[in-house]
Write a structure and sequence with these properties.
By secondary structure, this protein is an alpha/beta fold. The protein has 30 helices and 17 strands. Helix 1 runs antiparallel to helix 2 and helix 22 runs parallel beside helix 24.
Length: about 725
């Protein structure tokens, strides 16, 4: 490729940020950039074949494609499916989408010099895998994926149909118990899972605190931080054939005695011996912590070692909120105290420094848990959208299992809201196809390297169908993101998604059987569905009523829900969990749409792509006509608007939603604390990252605490800032 060819498509892409002489934005320049990129970069480096049969034969012979996937179909069908895929005339809607596909997903020769697939061919391999031998489903999936209605998550889309590959599964969650064997086994399992390309989260709450006894000898335990260091090194070592770096997260209850040391590992000025650079941190916060902060009281930190001895249960397996007073008053349980408000202040400071920690609201998630009789939800995953029950494993001294508990994996994919609505008459079929596809991933994954996860997957077949491009859909329909109409539409869309997802899993159960503990769930007795039997659901705003009518989306009635609930009581559902909304960062670029449920950062996002420099990413179908609906991005609309959207969706999502908070350069730790409280009160289950505008860092990588405190003080003096000066003032609550 010649230099001027490289510059031509980059230059065209750069024009999207400018207006032409008539004052119109030059968004068409990006589409021309795509054409040049394909013509000048991809086609000259595409291996050519006589025909598709020749290509397939070559890829099987050279061990690129897995013949066991292809052998489920006859040759004529595969060749016809490839022709069908080509007839869909898929084109990338943005330069970023094309670059993302060819840099991250397309199959290449082992020397990384030649491309062996285009988008439609990658889609066909996904459809053949996800179809599981069902020709009709495979053809539907080709249509759904090429039309951007459904997009499998990165591990599935990347690996489907390949012989040398990682796993199809997106994420894994592991409990770590308070034994050396459990710690060692968790590290080795994390290595194995990272090798296969999944993100791994681990719950450290049950590990005894620093200074706890070992074999009755006091002040011997090292606490959680050394285990975090071991895990960080493990994740940095493992990667999936150089394609995806190992990635890990650790979760800890805020009532664990090591919580402040745990958080300090992310401080910019932390000692290198304890500093955690690449491992993600998450905290688990029960309701009692908010209550203590509101009352400006100290919070007790309880020894997990003593809890296990006293209760016969691990710390994660009891409700800290329910047992708080008993734990405080029990002299046999050692405890230390810290200010609850200081804890929240520390969390906010770290969000300014690093964006961490993630937050899981412990009682909210367990109150909504439809599997209460099986166990508790004690953690989330690397992207904070998974919420499932895990149970304890125990090990022998040789690290073999004494008892295999249930750990967690989840198989993800996302609907494109705009594309799904544009074919709303087939919305139920789209959801059914997607649920079948994700269910097949759960039944095809080889998780033998992690027996507790394998057991959890085999017994639950948990999946997480999500959605993306909400802001895109709202904007092309002239609805502002920060509006009651946006919340209203989100509520209706996820109401319909939930109904059709349960209906699809119920249909699957008739064929495949139910997940193992279905009879213990709130689905079996109908409790979970009672909220849908109280009143007929309809849009609350005129704009959304018109929108639903325009697109023809069917809203299930109370009778529909009642009939479905009765069918589920009789036949069950195939999957213990069905919905989860992931961040969709990578696949939303691939589909050239807005990520997840969040607003765009700006109408034209700027990304730095290695040697190419800046690449400009126009928002979904942006035009002069709808530009104003993108103009107020994530930082401008503020955290409350995003929380309102997520809260509306969360009421219908059985797991969680990756909720990112965006704060302006003027934000203070108090503003962050208010956002935590608002998310908590609105029933959100988790908070993913907190993003602060770069200006808050004042051009450096260091957080200016003095400046933030000064800003907080200034805000309090502002005549429009109401503060009662008491613990009842929400602004001062933390």
């Amino acid at each position: 490729m010649q230099k001027n060819e490289n510059e031509s498509y980059i230059s065209l892409n750069a024009l999207t940020q400018f207006k032409d002489k008539d004052g119109h934005y030059n968004f068409t320049a990006d589409k021309k950039a795509v054409e040049l990129y394909i013509e000048n970069v991809i086609k000259p480096n595409r291996m050519t074949f006589k025909d598709e049969k020749d290509r397939i034969d070559y890829l099987v012979k050279e061990k690129y494609y897995d013949p066991s996937i292809l052998n489920k179909y006859n040759e004529d069908f595969i060749l016809d499916l490839l022709k069908f895929a080509k007839k869909q005339n898929f084109t990338f809607k943005s330069l970023m989408g094309a670059m993302k596909f060819y840099k991250s997903y397309a199959l290449m020769t082992d020397d990384k010099k030649m491309y062996l697939e285009d988008f439609s061919e990658r889609v066909v391999m996904n459809a053949l895998f996800l179809g599981g031998g069902d020709k009709n489903l495979a053809k539907k999936l080709v249509s759904d994926i090429t039309s951007n209605k459904f997009q499998p998550a990165t591990p599935t889309f990347l690996n489907a149909g390949k012989l040398r590959r990682g796993e199809y599964v997106s994420c894994y969650l592991l409990r770590v118990e308070d034994t050396m064997e459990s710690i060692a086994r968790s590290i080795s399992t994390s290595l194995q899972l990272s090798k296969r390309g999944g993100g791994v989260a681990l719950c450290l709450t049950n590990l005894r605190e620093k200074g706890a006894p070992i074999k009755g000898i006091v002040n011997q335990a090292s606490g959680v931080v050394p285990v975090m260091k071991l895990l960080e090194d493990s994740f940095s070592y493992a990667n999936q054939l150089g394609q995806r770096q190992g990635a890990g997260a650790v979760y800890l209850s805020v009532h664990h005695p090591d919580i402040l040391s745990f958080l300090d590992t992310k401080r910019e000025n932390a000692d290198e011996k304890i500093r955690i650079k690449s491992l993600s941190l998450g905290v688990v916060i029960p309701d009692i912590t908010f209550k203590l902060a509101k009352e400006n009281k100290d919070m007790a930190l309880f020894s997990p070692y003593d809890i296990k001895r006293e209760y016969g249960k691990s710390m994660t397996d009891i409700s800290i909120t329910a047992e708080y007073d008993n734990l405080v008053n029990n002299p046999r349980i050692r405890k230390t105290f810290t200010s609850a408000r200081k804890l929240f202040q520390t969390i906010a400071e770290l969000h300014f420094e690093s964006g961490y920690p993630y937050i899981l609201f412990e009682d909210t998630v367990n109150y909504r848990n439809p599997h209460k009789k099986v166990g508790r939800i004690v953690m989330s995953n690397l992207c904070s959208e998974i919420a499932q029950v895990s149970t304890e494993s125990s090990y022998k001294e040789d690290l073999s299992f004494d008892k295999i508990g249930n750990d967690i994996c989840c198989n993800l994919g996302s609907l494109n809201i705009a594309a799904a609505m544009e074919d709303a008459s087939h919305f139920g079929e789209l959801v059914e196809n997607s649920i079948k596809a994700l269910d097949h991933v759960s039944r095809s994954a080889d998780l033998s390297c992690a027996p507790s996860i394998e057991k959890g997957n085999r017994e639950n077949h948990a999946i997480g169908l999500g959605a993306m491009n909400l802001h895109g859909f709202l904007s092309i329909n002239h609805i502002y993101y920060a509006s009651k109409e946006a919340v209203d539409f989100t509520d209706i869309f996820f109401y319909c998604l939930s109904y059709n997802a349960f209906k699809a899993s119920n249909k699957l159960a008739k064929e495949m059987g139910t997940f193992k503990d279905f009879k213990l769930s709130e689905y079996a007795d109908g409790t979970y569905f009672e909220k849908y039997l109280k009143e007929e659901k309809q849009p609350k705003t005129e704009k959304v009523k018109e929108l639903i009518k325009k697109y023809g989306l069917y809203i299930p009635s109370v009778k529909d829900w009642k009939d479905l609930s009765e069918s589920i009581k009789k036949y069950g559902i195939a999957n213990s969990h069905l919905l989860a909304v992931a961040p969709t960062g990578s696949i939303s670029y691939l589909s050239s749409c807005t990520p997840s449920l969040q607003p765009v950062v700006s109408p034209i996002e700027v990304r730095k792509e290695g040697k190419l420099g800046r690449v400009y990413v126009p928002a979904f179908r942006i035009s002069d006509d709808n530009y104003e609906y993108y103009e107020k991005g994530a930082y401008e609309v503020g955290p409350e608007a995003i929380i309102d959207i997520v809260s509306a969706a969360q009421s219908h999502v059985d797991q969680s939603i990756s909720l990112t908070l965006f704060m302006t350069a003027n934000a203070t730790t108090r503003d962050l604390n208010r956002a935590y409280i608002y998310a908590f009160k609105k029933g959100c289950i988790s908070i993913y990252y907190v993003r602060i505008r770069q200006e808050v860092l004042d051009g450096s990588e260091h957080y200016d605490e003095d400046q933030v405190i000064k800003s907080a003080s200034d805000k309090k003096k502002d005549k429009n800032f109401h503060c009662t000066g008491s613990s009842e003032c929400e602004a001062c609550m933390l």
